[in-house]
Specification:
Elements: H1 2-30, E1 31-33, E2 38-40, E3 55-57, E4 74-75, H2 78-159, H3 165-194, H4 225-236
Antiparallel strand pairs: 1-2, 3-4
Amino acid sequence: MKKKISLLILGILIIITLGFLIKYIIYNENYVTSNAGFIKTDSLTYLSFKIDGKINHFPFQSGDKIKKNQLIASLQIKELNTSLNQIKFNILSLQNKINSMQDSKTKLISDIKLNTQLNLNQLKILDKNIEASKLNIKSMQVELKKLKDVYKRYSFLYKRKKISIDKYETISTNYNSMKFKITFEITEKELAEALLPNGGKITDVEIGKTVARRARKSSSGDDSPKQTASRRKSAKA
């Protein structure tokens, strides 16, 4: 009888022990524990931050339940804010430099256009002055031819003592003065032509536009090299 009671007690103890053991196994399967506490979960989940820092917010106690996407903890972001502000400052400084460079580029383009237009206007004025000089030279050359004929006649008369020395010197002075004026006018025209594109003519030009040399057409109003040489020879006569 005593033996049966002992076996019964032993069986009860074994059942109780097995019950605690099963409960312990189930507890370990359903709870993840750490030094900070535990979180009930269906699977093991590692929680970590992407950056180093000091935890300043953790509003949970051991055994608290959490929901999906619920904030568990946060770090102090003072240093992070400092770095972020520095990055924002660097971006702003870089943007200011870009804006300044853009303004400089715009001003440079504007100055180039302005200077180009001024140069074109000056060249147009020079071109007009050259054309006026050509007409003036032709007019003076006609006058010089007349004076040359008069000078030859007066020189002939003076050598035969048919006119006074005063009349001869007057016509001689006028003739030499006209030769000097023509020489001066031709020199001025050639200097002005040196400032123009060689063999070109002023047209509407824009920045970036391709231009090519265009030969100047000769006309009755232009001086050919032979005519210029001939007139210089006449001026020296």
